[in-house]
Amino acid sequence: MNCPSCNHHMIEVEISGVKIDYCQDGCQGVYFDNFELKQLDETHEGSGSILEEILSQERQDDSRMEKMECPKCHIKMKRHKYAFDSDIYIDHCYSCNGIWLDKGELAAVRDQFRSDKQRTQNVETLISSVPDIGQEMARMEIERDKADARAKKRRGFFSFLNKIIPS
Ligand SMILES: [Zn+2]
Ligand SMILES: [Zn+2]
Questions:
Q1: 9 alpha carbon, closest ligand
Q2: Sheet holding 30-32: strands in order across?
Q3: In this predicted model, what pLDDT tens digit does every residue of 54-106 receive, in sequence order?
Q4: Domain map of the chain by residue range?
């Protein structure tokens, strides 16, 4: 299979049972079949010298906007963020669910995953460390803030009416 980015011939490599196409001699991007990225997107997943090589590569400028063709189906792939609040743009074929990662993006994806998990964990620890009475007070505070916001909105609406309806 040829690389969708630089057209070099990609080599097929296997990382802990997951087959990927790797543009080793060209742009060093990697292509995953059918969501197989899920099996290698966490920091503890996979091992071996090829994976180490891929993870050691530096990420490049990610501002490319043009869409690439899926190396398998030859239709244009969609370009979107990997996770909800990440800054990593991946190329995703909606037909075969192949995923293309530019050089250095696999490491970025794995780092992202770790930080997301850590964030959730931190929040959970935070909540569980608050005694029940504290949680109740926090909830009341949130409700009060919401009520305040609603009241403010209403006030704003009436003063708007006062302005447009002459008394
Ligand atoms: Zn390439
Ligand atoms: Zn495809």
A1: 1
A2: 11-15, 18-22, 30-32, 99-101, 89-92, 78-81
A3: 999 999 887 888 899 999 999 999 998 887 667 889 999 988 989 999 999 99
A4: 11-117, 130-164
